[in-house]
Specification:
The chain has 439 residues and is α/β, with parallel strands linked by helices. The protein has helices at residues 25-33, 56-69, 82-91, 101-112, 116-144, 157-190, 206-213, 271-276, 282-285, 300-317, 334-343, 362-372, 387-399, 419-438; strands at 9-17, 36-45, 73-76, 97-99, 193-200, 218-219, 246-252, 255-261, 289-295, 322-327, 352-353, 377-384, 401-407, 410-417. A hairpin with a 2-residue loop joins strand 7 (246-252) and strand 8 (255-261).
């Protein structure tokens, strides 16, 4: 039986910029990531036309391009208002879909959402995208008493209310999921795990780095909530491969570390879209250390812009140290790496420089991770010699680095561990002493 192939939908890409030359490379990558075949591009440098976004004459030329290329969609690398979308559609051949940048990104998110949490976040983003359009219909219908005014569709006064109600329900469910995930993270931390999260833009190499650093043991980030979680993070060269989070265990010297690969940033996202996916970044906000992965083969200007955006997002709620990781040094020479490090020293004063693909300097990064993680505390406990003591000693072995254990009339154990583990061990020791005293 032959496998059925789906022919990509043919699309024309359009982009307007206020000044300079329009670059369509990223929007073309996004279009391909969504499953479109880009057959033509059209750009314009001018101020925004309130009615058509592009100039009206340019939109008419766009219609000709669509017809010549036999395209079924036009994808704008801009945000379009509801009226602009309608006006442009009227200038195009019949049944041509007009998609702006953010609708395209939502399509990609929808295709990649495999977990309940990801699906809820996509739906939340879609509803927040639709809400102002529903409000526009409501405003026009009330003002002009013409339900179909401007071709925006029939006005349903309950639609706006339904959207707001659904947004509230989704937020409540996402909050419940996040509470469960936070509880699981705290359990892991109390069990002696350090939590390291990787952040950065799409295609910076986060998933490749995760696979390079991770040990063989896979850790399911969300257990029953995420039963379909892949056992390994994908690292192919496409946008939005990682929509949810993937967590794996790594051994960093004497530390038990959990590495989490998070959804990649992308440029020019509106505030409402970023907000819809904030809970995905909670793995970053709750980490002990953040690795901010940057593609060093990009231009200094691109790297600087992305670093600023990442810092604005991460420092909003994150208190953990952030280590910038300049990745993909296999694509540039040493002189270029040095030049870019100096140019970005204010934003990344002491970056780790690696190649996740070849493994170059990975050992140095492991040492850096160990250095930046919270210090272990030294502890010495004297425990009564009882049957229950052996289970406590076993627990300490599982959750700490034990230096020595002396067995005599009493058990003396010396170890180092995270502060939370030290505190738990003291509590367990106290219970043993109380039990022994009351016996």
């Amino acid at each position: 039986m032959t496998e059925r192939t789906i022919t990509p939908e043919r699309a024309v890409v359009a982009k307007r910029v206020d000044s300079g030359e329009a670059d369509t490379s990223e929007i073309e990558d996004l279009a391909r990531a969504a499953g479109y075949a880009v057959v033509e591009t059209l750009t314009q440098t001018r101020t925004e036309d309130p009615a058509y976004h592009l100039g009206e004459g340019k939109v008419e030329r766009l219609g000709g391009l669509v017809q010549q290329a036999d395209a079924r969609a036009v994808i704008f690398d801009n945000q379009l208002g509801p009226y602009q979308t309608f006006n442009i559609g009227n200038k195009l051949p019949e049944d041509i879909r007009v998609i702006d940048r953010f609708r395209l990104i939502l399509e990609i998110f929808g295709q990649r959402a495999q977990t309940r949490k990801a699906q809820l976040q996509v739906e939340l983003a879609e509803l927040r995208y639709e809400l102002p359009r529903a409000e526009a219909k409501a405003s026009l219908a009330k003002r002009d008493e013409r339900p179909g005014f401007m071709g925006l569709g029939e006005y349903d006064e309950s639609r706006e209310r339904d959207i707001k109600s659904r947004i509230a329900r989704i937020r409540d469910e996402l909050e419940t999921i996040e509470q469960t995930e936070q509880h699981r993270r705290e359990q892991r931390r109390e069990s002696g795990f350090d939590l390291v999260a990787m952040a950065g833009y799409t295609n910076a190499g986060k998933s490749t780095l995760l696979r390079r650093l991770a040990a063989d043991l896979d850790v399911d980030e969300n257990d029953d909530l995420h039963p379909d979680l892949d056992t390994t993070a994908e690292s192919e060269d496409r946008l939005f491969t990682t929509l949810g989070t993937t967590t794996r265990q790594a051994d960093i010297d004497a530390r038990d570390v959990l590495l989490t690969d998070t959804v990649g940033f992308i440029s020019d996202l509106p505030h409402w879209l970023v907000e819809s996916f904030k809970s995905t970044l909670d793995a970053v906000y709750r980490a002990d250390l953040v690795l901010l992965v940057v593609d060093v083969s990009e231009s200094v200007e691109e790297m600087r812009e992305k670093l600023v955006t990442c810092h604005d997002t991460l420092y909003e709620r994150n208190e953990a140290p952030i280590v910038t990781v300049l990745n993909k040094i296999d694509k540039v020479d040493d002189e270029e790496v040095t030049r870019k490090r100096e140019a970005l020293s204010a934003l990344a004063p002491d970056p780790a420089v690696i190649s996740a693909r070849t493994g170059e300097h990975i050992d140095s990064l492991r040492e850096r991770i160990h250095t930046e993680l919270p210090d272990f505390e030294q502890e010495r406990l004297v425990l009564p010699m009882t049957d229950d003591t052996m289970s406590v000693v076993s627990w300490i072995h599982d959750n700490a680095n034990v230096h020595s254990v002396d067995y005599g009339d009493q058990v003396v154990i010396e170890f180092e561990a995270r502060p939370s583990v030290v505190q738990q061990s003291r509590s367990k020791a106290g219970e043993l002493v109380e039990t022994e005293a009351s016996a």
